[in-house]
Design goal:
Length: 687
């Protein structure tokens, strides 16, 4: 079988086979990786990049470039080979060009090696040209929907007559594994509902997965499924037929009322004696098979990492001759835009820098002392709306729960098909895709947030984790944070979820203890530029502490702080978070009235507290005070680091129960009397 379009030796065929052989050689040298998909999709990648993708290799971060997402992240060598041959130039962490190639030939030779720019799966921030980290299958599909949403939102916000700043397209390579993952179905359904005609998924239908033929577990008609989602579905019978694939892309570009799904039929590892086998998908071919495969391509069989003369120049020129002028025209357009619309241009510049409008913090509300108080989800909604008035590209929503999570921005409209200027997203009951979509939005300048109940954090753990890996400042709002959910019972009462979120490196998990801590928590979350935040909020009302009596809630910015204290060294330290802070404060007052030297500590963010120096942490939780009691309606895991071997906790060791909140708190020991009694026992034990 030979290329159906290009003759052997043509620049096109040489470029395609160079992508294939670089991928084979890198996987073989590493003795690790997936060569089959890069080999099969090389003609498709070549055609898309050389003829259609609007991209300037010299300036790979210009805002209106088309986005290319490799959701089949295990096929990373396909992307690395393309970035190398395209001559994409490196940009450093500060956004400045270094003059070096994004992916050199030496980088390819270091595929999957420590500290290389060519890790096993593409990683955002590590390798210029990688638009998102796609590890778990399906995540790139979800991210792409967020990117397409961002283009529509940016266009609505900034485009003006004669100034079309944003009209980029988003392309995705996905495979059978992506199609099996539920997140892709959630994301595709969302994209179809929103009629995102700037989104094109290219589905590599090769009928192979790690275990073997997909017939073992997967035999549905995927194209018909996407037709049901409202997508434009096109079939390309042979991945080597570049002309037919080009026509499919042209059909996508001509479609303005729905996303496009191109089903490309390929034979994995084309040209390999193992073609069509799971071996070509999941491991190196072996030196003998590499030689035979190269021979089938008409390639020097003993040559390794060969880039024939003229191939890189041909591929780079094909991309740069189109992308370079497009980028230059955009920059000239933006220069004129600055003169005509200086306010909007300044706002866009801030977005590109990851900064917020000056003075936005002045919008933060403060809350008077109130014994009845507010549920922290309620105060969060008030804070969100106050901030949103000053931060126009703060956009988000909930997984069909905005009335409960209080995540609506009032009078800001809904983001819907035909109404892309709205700021309220309706993700439907699709928590997993919601998280991934929010990540994609953040990758394209938006300040995105999501909302659902804390117990459903399980459904979106992968995108939360990936937000941390990519250092994206997404805000994940979680309400209904404890057994305070009440009658809904154990299935809706999160117990272990705080511990699992706190375990994610780089995620700031904040559980504020009253309305003023909520305001500071939102401030902290928006000031984060390189880390996501999980805001953990209550369903039930919690007391707004009297800050004329207690320390300022600004102490939350350090993660933990002394709220109320005693004269001299405390005999006992009481630690609370979230809705439990109010009862811990009451217990502190009671113990103080009884002559016990008690210290009240709020510890809403372990992440921020651990960032403080040892002297500060010691000032809040001195090691000399052994009697420490933490109170939290969640599991005890992790609290030992703060209460020590001689301290204790009042926490949850079961999954809760279905009952009114007062009955639950009594049953599980969350009462002022029990806190005081437990504190006294600790003091007696440590005396």
């Amino acid at each position: 079988m030979i290329d159906a379009v290009h003759e052997d030796g043509s620049p096109e065929r040489l470029a395609i086979d160079t992508i294939r052989t670089l991928s084979m050689d890198a996987v073989q040298k590493a003795n690790s990786g997936h060569p089959g998909t890069p080999m099969a999709l090389a003609p498709v990648a070549y055609t898309l990049w050389s003829k259609y993708l609007r991209y300037d290799p010299s300036t790979p971060d210009w805002p209106n470039r088309d986005r290319f997402v490799l959701s089949v992240g295990h096929a990373s060598m396909l992307l690395y080979s393309v970035l190398h041959l395209a001559g994409v130039r490196e940009i450093d962490a500060d956004g400045n060009p270094t003059g070096a190639p994004a992916v050199s030939l030496d980088d390819i030779k270091q595929f999957r090696q420590l500290s290389s720019k060519t890790p096993g799966h593409p990683e955002y921030r590590m390798t210029t040209g990688v638009e998102t980290t796609t590890g778990p299958l399906g995540q790139g599909c979800g991210n792409s929907v967020g990117m397409a949403i961002a283009e529509r939102a940016l266009a609505e916000r900034f485009n003006r007559d004669g100034f079309r700043l944003f009209d980029f397209d988003v392309y995705v390579f996905c495979g059978d594994g992506d199609m099996m993952e539920g997140i892709s179905s959630e994301a595709a359904s969302t994209a179809g509902h929103l009629k995102l005609s700037n989104l094109c998924w290219v589905y590599d239908s090769n009928h192979i997965s790690i275990e073997g033929s997909t017939d073992l577990a997967f035999d549905e008609d995927v194209g018909k499924r996407f037709e049901a989602y409202g997508w434009n579905v096109i079939h390309v019978d042979d991945a080597n037929d570049c002309e037919s694939f080009g026509k499919a892309i042209e059909s996508f570009k001509a479609t303005d009322d729905r996303p496009t799904f191109i089903v490309v039929h390929s034979i994995i590892g084309w040209g390999s004696p193992r073609a069509g086998s799971e071996k070509a998908h999941g491991e190196a071919l072996g030196e003998d098979n590499v030689r035979k495969t190269k021979q089938a391509y008409g390639w020097p069989e003993d040559a390794q990492f060969l880039v024939p003369d003229g191939v890189a120049e041909h591929f780079h020129k094909a991309i740069a001759d189109r992308g370079g002028p497009a980028r230059e025209q955009w920059e000239a357009l933006f220069a004129r835009y600055k003169s005509s619309f200086p306010t909007e241009a300044a706002e866009l510049d801030l977005l590109r820098q990851g900064k917020l409008p000056e003075g936005w913090q002045q919008a933060l509300p403060s809350f008077p002392a109130d014994e009845k108080g507010l549920a922290s989800r309620e105060s969060s909604g008030k804070v969100l709306n106050a901030i949103a008035a000053k931060v126009p590209m703060l956009i988000g929503g909930a997984a069909d729960l905005s009335p409960s999570t209080k995540t609506d921005i009032k009078d800001a409209g809904s983001f819907e098909a035909g109404s892309y200027g709205g700021r309220n997203m309706h993700f439907g009951v699709r928590e997993h895709a919601m998280g991934s979509i929010a990540n994609g939005m953040a990758l394209c300048y938006l300040r995105s947030y999501t909302g659902t109940f804390l117990v459903f954090a399980d459904y979106m753990r992968a995108p939360i984790r990936l937000a941390s890996i990519m250092e994206l400042p997404v805000i994940f709002v979680f309400t209904h944070d404890s057994i305070g959910v009440g009658e809904d019972g154990p299935t809706h009462q999160p117990i272990e979820h705080l511990a699992t979120l706190r375990a994610i490196p780089g995620l700031d998990t904040i559980r504020p203890g009253d309305a003023n801590e909520v305001a500071v928590a939102w401030k902290v979350a928006l000031e984060h530029t390189n880390e996501p935040t999980a805001l953990i909020l209550s369903r039930q009302a919690i007391t707004t502490l009297d800050r004329s009596k207690y320390a300022s809630a600004e102490g939350l910015e350090k993660g933990g702080y002394i709220v109320g204290d005693c004269d001299g060294e405390p005999e006992v330290i009481l630690i609370g978070t979230g809705s439990e802070l109010q009862m811990v404060a009451a217990a502190h007052e009671k113990l103080t009235a009884d002559g016990i030297r008690s210290r009240l500590v709020s510890l809403p963010s372990w992440y921020l507290f651990e960032k403080q120096d040892q002297a500060y942490r010691e000032s809040v939780l001195p090691r000399s005070v052994r009697s420490r009691l933490a109170v939290e309606q969640a599991g005890s895991l992790g609290w030992d680091r703060y209460v020590g071997a001689d301290g204790g906790t009042i926490t949850m060791s079961t999954f809760g129960a279905s009952a009114p909140i007062a009955k639950l708190q009594e049953k599980f020991g969350f009462s002022v009397d029990n806190i005081c009694a437990t504190a006294r026992k600790l003091m007696e034990k440590n005396a």
